UniProtKB/TrEMBL annotation, chain A:
One of its GO terms (molecular function) is 3-hydroxyisobutyryl-CoA hydrolase activity. One of its GO terms (biological process) is L-valine catabolic process. Pathway: Amino-acid degradation; L-valine degradation. PANTHER family: 3-HYDROXYISOBUTYRYL-COA HYDROLASE, MITOCHONDRIAL, 3-HYDROXYISOBUTYRYL-COA HYDROLASE-RELATED. Belongs to the enoyl-CoA hydratase/isomerase family. Gene3D superfamilies: 2-enoyl-CoA Hydratase, Chain A, domain 1. This is 3-hydroxyisobutyryl-CoA hydrolase. Hydrolyzes 3-hydroxyisobutyryl-CoA (HIBYL-CoA), a saline catabolite. Has high activity toward isobutyryl-CoA. Could be an isobutyryl-CoA dehydrogenase that functions in valine catabolism. Residues 21-354 form the Enoyl-CoA hydratase/isomerase domain. Its EC number is 3.1.2.4. Transmembrane segments: none annotated.
From TrEMBL, chain B:
Keywords: FAD, Fatty acid metabolism, Flavoprotein, Lipid metabolism, Oxidoreductase, Peroxisome. GO terms for cellular component: peroxisome. Belongs to the acyl-CoA oxidase family. This is Acyl-coenzyme A oxidase. The active site is at E465 (proton acceptor).
Length: 383, 673
């Protein structure tokens, strides 16, 4: 029954199993970071599978210890150095288009997050209907440490987490394990990795595109893991109090007030993380998640595309390039942000990141038409 | 025997119908599928830009506050059709609603939302405060009124009538809610006629105290928001009687509850009870039984009483003194006017989104049914109202700016504009909500769908902070005074936009073409013409009455018909001017083009007012041309309907299930959850 249609060297492996298609991200050495080619290939595959009446379910997973560590940002920076910011913009245009396609997919996507899932990896999974975490899952949106901001539709899916947990993850880049992902809703199920082969087989045998049926199949292999005692998810009250504040500065001073009231390693770590992140990134990220909370997934991606184009252009701040240098290339982990302080970044400056790029022949992100498909209610609710 | 037979038949039918063979016809293909308008409708302009223009200011502040509400369980979030909606549970008892309102205020207080509202100064602070009120009012009228009473009325009275020691003593505690204030002006026997209130305050120089008394039942304070449950302090309006001389209405601070919430001695409080709306506000009635308050509690910016009991005032004219006392009500009035516009935005967003997804009747058998908004009649019902709310948004932004940039010279303009806009916006709101309710059919009657319920909640807006009819009479009187003044001094009209009165009278072409009808200059001419005609007529009517020996008051009373039409003509023209000004700020492009159509639709809808025919400002032929053009404009605005309602900037969570996937929101599976 199973037939392999791809070679071992392909960056995306494709298996056809009955009514299911298993797509495996296959760049294990790079922790399956999404290259431009992989994104193109995924777009192609998702589009073809949507049109194919024989496909009811798409399973996405990663080879090796990562599901996907993000977009291949190092390559993007390289391309920009060689071909200008438009090269970077093209990469994100394609990636965000893929994110939108997944968010509005008329068929079911099950992502198996058995390992690292960061940045662009979340963009390739969180928008789908089912996200399966395991004891190996490791989630983060670490963009503010890189001089970027949580993109790939994160302003949509992070802003809809309980309370102000989204702001916390978005600004600090904090890591979550599988149990925490399930608790906050980033994952829909938690399955022990040992059971994954059996789960996959069951999904392939399902012959169904019914949400309830697929959910109950995954449910048969799932369990309710308990949160570790020190879990950040047990600190939601502090997070709500602090991260609901108006500005990044207010958030920091609220955290500092909390630190005065009690000695708590977590609070000081959080403060340190925020202070190490790019001030520009923090400000635009906070504005983005708050705008995203009130927008559908399409407008979120359109806004993020504007933002990312401004970041690539580096008119106001070149933190993205500095961040990539310090974290990915030189690996000295000591980026020199410019502007270096939060108070040097005014609201008017932040506004620029949300405006159209003033450049001839630049256009807003054009979302692919979805009207010909019969979209399920959970997709319609995201528009 | 018959009954047994009937029973058997029912059972048989029941069994047959529930067999699988019979239900097979109910496949999803035959059913009505919800089709999201986002996927079929096109946006010809940037809705974010339009939203910025409509909201006018503090967009980021608004979004943060929206987020604070959506993310908290206190605001009763409910998932319907896969989306979260926030709305108070209006099925709770009055007591529960009041407690919830209070808990929500505490939550916002903890998040620093009110920071600087009393202790801060400047235009930015005041504009931000307006923005917050607009957002909170979109969630619930009760929370906005509860806060409005505390900040604008109680706090505003201290700011405006009080002097430094009052500010130092009360403003910070007000901002932190250490004191909870209310505002005791209205009495059972006197509402709009504040000067007639019967509560009396005397001064006891032996103890240095004022003594406040409710002398009769009609003097009981009535409708006092916050008084029934929460308020600890109140501003009391009363006739100040010093040494047997009535010095007129003055305001004092009195404590009515202690910190534990017990009612103070010599104060009696009763509940106003259940109301048609605003049940989250604890309106109460208060009787004062010779309540003693220290001399410093007199709000003495206008007048004071010396320790030995002498009355001192910098303003000798009691009329002017009284006018000074009413000035803080202006902020409340501005708030109400703006809030009414936002309620209309909710109603129109819901009704238009519903009309973009609900179908009814096919043109031919076996054809798909027609979308409600594709019926010209449905367009005619909703789209001119949408245009009106665009116009009123610009009017509201102008009014807010006028208020925050106030000077002693602009007081009269503020009074006239705020009175006329308050009346116009709140009346329009009731009309718009009613039309939207009907346009949503039966679904409009469900409380969760908001539109119908909003009517009950906001009905009060045409009454509080000045009865609309009385406000409009005041507008006409002010215009009359302006006219007389200009004539007497042979001077030009200044302010209030009456400059056009001395220009040559605009001429309306006998044949109105589409191009003319859409020209903003023509539209302005037509609006000025009606105002001019009515003002001239009003002055003539009043003068005629005066010539017959009637008093001025009686002359105004007799001329009420023209006065009403004049107030409306003034408002429409003033609102239109703000539209033109907003449009002029835009660069050429699709946004400006669409807004131009909306402006024409608003203007022509104004020209449909019966006054145009009644007073001969338009010929019957011209009126027919206007009517025809409106239909055309409606069909041209129709393709932009979704973009135009999206630009109103009301987040999905503040609309209602019928504005989105109402099929899924009402599915059987949603019942089982």
């Amino acid at each position: 029954m199973a037939s392999s249609v791809s070679s071992q060297h392909d960056e995306v492996l494709v298996e056809e199993k009955s009514f299911a298609r298993i797509l495996t991200l296959n760049r294990p050495k790079q922790l399956n970071a999404l290259s431009s080619q992989m994104i193109s290939r995924l777009l192609e595959l998702f589009l073809a599978n949507e049109d194919d009446p024989n496909v009811k379910l798409v399973i996405l997973k990663g080879k090796g210890r990562a599901f996907c560590a993000g977009g291949d940002v190092a390559a993007v920076v390289h391309d920009i150095r060689a071909g200008g910011w438009r090269a970077g913009a093209n990469f994100f245009m394609k990636e965000f288009t893929l994110n939108y396609l997944m968010a509005t997919y008329s068929k079911l996507q099950v992502s198996i997050l058995n390992g690292i899932v960061m940045g662009g990896g979340n963009g390739a999974s969180m928008h789908g209907r089912f996200r399966v975490a395991t004891e190996n899952s490791l989630f983060a949106m670490p963009e503010t440490a890189l001089g970027l901001f949580p993109d790939v539709g994160a302003s949509y899916f992070l802003s809809r987490l309980p309370g102000f947990f989204g702001e916390y993850l978005c600004l600090t880049g904090a890591r979550l394990d599988g149990a925490e992902m399930l608790a906050c809703g980033l994952a829909t199920h938690f399955v022990q990795s040992a059971k994954l082969p059996a789960l996959e087989a069951a999904l392939c045998a399902a012959d169904s595109s019914d949400t309830v049926i697929i959910s109950s199949i995954i449910g048969q292999y799932s369990e309710q893991p308990s949160l570790k005692e020190q879990s950040v998810y047990n600190r939601l009250d502090v997070i709500d109090r602090c991260f609901s504040q108006k500005t990044v500065e207010d958030i920091l001073s609220a955290l500092e007030n909390e630190a005065v009231n009690r000695r708590d390693g977590w609070i000081s770590t959080t403060i340190q993380t925020l202070k190490k992140a790019s001030p520009t990134s923090l400000k635009i990220s906070l504005r983005s998640i708050r705008a995203g909370r009130l927008q559908g997934v399409g407008p979120c991606l359109i806004r993020e595309y504007r933002m990312v184009c401004h970041v690539m252009r580096g008119e106001f701040s070149k933190d993205f390039f500095e961040g990539c240098r310090a974290i990915l290339l030189d690996k000295d982990k000591n980026p020199k942000w410019e502007p270096s302080k939060l108070e040097l970044i005014t609201d008017t400056t932040v506004d620029i990141y949300f405006s159209k790029v003033k450049n001839e022949d630049w256009e807003d992100l054009k979302l692919p038409a979805r009207s010909k498909f019969n979209l399920p209610p959970y997709v319609i609710a995201k528009l | 025997m018959d009954r047994a037979f009937q029973r058997t038949r029912i059972l048989t039918n029941h069994l047959l119908l529930s067999s699988p063979a019979q239900t097979a016809c109910l496949t999803s293909n035959d059913c009505f599928n919800y089709s999201p308008p986002e996927l079929s409708e096109k946006y010809a302009f940037d809705v974010n830009e339009m939203r910025k223009l409509m909201d006018g200011h503090d967009v980021e502040e608004r979004d943060r506050l929206f987020g604070l509400i959506i993310q908290s369980k206190l605001f009763n979030p409910r998932v319907r059709g896969g989306k979260v909606f926030v709305l108070p549970d209006y099925n709770q008892s009055m007591e529960q609603q009041r407690e919830m309102t209070w808990k929500r205020i505490e939550y916002l207080l903890e998040r620093g939302v009110f920071k600087g509202w009393m202790t801060g100064e400047g235009e930015d602070v005041e504009m931000k405060r307006f923005a917050c009120f607009e957002v909170l009012g979109l969630f619930d009228h009760s929370i906005s009124i509860k806060l409005g009473v505390h900040f604008f009325l109680w706090g505003g009275a201290i700011q405006f009538f009080g002097t430094k020691h009052h500010h130092d003593k009360w403003l910070r505690d007000t901002e932190n809610f250490k004191v909870k204030g209310c505002f005791s002006m209205t009495e059972l026997g006197h509402g709009s006629n504040v000067r007639g209130i019967e509560t009396v305050t005397t001064y006891d120089s032996k103890t240095g105290e004022f003594v406040i008394n409710t002398p009769c039942e009609s003097a009981q304070k009535f409708w006092i928001g916050g008084a029934a449950k929460h308020a600890t302090h109140t501003i009391v309006f009363s006739q100040l009687n010093i040494n047997g001389i009535n010095e007129g209405v003055h305001a004092l601070i009195a404590q009515i509850r202690d910190a534990d919430g017990n009612v103070c001695p010599n104060i009696r409080i009763a509940d106003c009870g259940h109301k048609i709306g605003l049940n989250g506000v604890d309106n109460g009635r208060i009787w004062f039984d010779n309540v003693r308050v220290p001399r410093e509690n007199l709000l003495n910016s206008v007048a004071d009483v010396s320790p030995d009991g002498k009355y001192l005032s910098s303003i000798k004219d009691p009329d002017q003194r009284f006018a000074a006392f009413l000035s803080p009500l202006t902020a409340g009035r501005v708030n109400i006017a703006v809030n009414a516009v936002y309620q209309s935005k909710v109603g129109l967003s819901i009704a238009i989104r519903y009309a973009l997804t609900r179908r009814a009747f096919s043109l031919k058998p076996n054809e798909p049914e027609v979308l409600l908004l594709d019926y010209p009649s449905h367009q005619r019902r909703l789209l001119p109202l949408l245009a009106k709310i665009y116009a009123m948004s610009f009017g509201a932004n102008y009014l807010k700016m006028l208020y925050v940039k106030r000077t002693p010279q602009s007081n009269k303009t503020i009074h006239v504009v705020s009175s006329s806009f308050k009346a116009t916006f709140t009346w329009s709101n009731m009309q718009i909500l009613q039309e939207c309710r009907e346009a949503c059919g039966g679904q409009g009657l469900k409380t969760e769908n908001r539109v119908g319920h909003l009517k009950a909640e906001h009905d009060v807006q045409s009454t509080f902070e000045g009865d609309n009819n009385i406000l409009m009479q005041q507008v006409s009187k002010a215009l009359f005074a302006e006219y007389v003044m200009a004539q007497k001094r042979n001077k030009v009209f200044k302010g209030l936009g009456l400059e056009h009165m001395i220009k040559p009278c605009p001429v309306i072409p006998s044949q109105l073409t589409s191009t003319t009808l859409r020209c903003s200059q023509f539209q302005m001419d037509a609006l000025c013409l009606r105002e001019r005609e009515l003002l001239n007529r009003f002055v003539a009517d009043v003068s005629q009455c005066l010539a017959k020996g009637e008093s001025k008051e009686q002359a105004f009373n007799m001329s009420y018909q023209v006065a009403e039409d004049l107030g409306k003509a003034f408002s429409d023209r003033a609102i239109f001017l703000t539209f033109i000004e907003a449009e002029a700020t835009l660069a050429a492009g699709s946004l400006k083009d669409v807004l131009g159509k909306v402006r024409s639709l608003y203007a022509l809808d104004c020209l449909e007012d019966i006054a145009y025919l009644r007073y001969g400002c338009l010929s019957v032929e011209n009126a027919a041309a206007v009517r025809k053009e409106i239909t055309k404009l409606c069909s041209e605005v129709r393709p932009h309907a979704l973009a135009l309602v999206s630009s109103l900037g009301i987040p999905d969570a503040f609309l209602s299930p019928i504005a989105f996937n109402w099929v899924d929101a009402n599915s059987w599976s949603s019942v089982q959850h």
